[in-house]
Design goal:
There is one protein chain. With about 130 residues, the protein is mainly alpha-helical. It contains 4 helices and 2 strands; from the N terminus they run H-E-E-H-H-H. A two-stranded antiparallel sheet has the order 1-2.
Length: about 130
Amino acid sequence: MKPADRIPSAALASLIILQSVMLSALYAGVPPHPPEAIPLFGIAPFLGLALSVAAAALILGPGSSRAGRWAGCLAALMALLSFGPQKYFDAQFALIWPAVLGGQVASLVLIANLVMKGRSGREAAVAGANS
């Protein structure tokens, strides 16, 4: 793995661990744990999907392929549903703040890194086409 790919891979690994712990807390019923359902869907199937998208991005190479970048951005956005700024207003925020802040940092680092890689890849392609 190239050093430049380590940043998005580390962010994805962080999201996988955070979401796995939250899913385990849900199954174990250990407070504070995520609710069993949120307005549009059950939380366990959503966390399962979020974990699988993050794992797929990790395998595709979040810093080295277009599909990996798209999957990585999707994984970050899905993680923000669980760890986004809306959690500051959650009644249990005092108990979940480490996961919320960690999830936000990992998601923002991942999105910023993948957007920068996407831009530099397009710039290189345009420069190569103009040569």
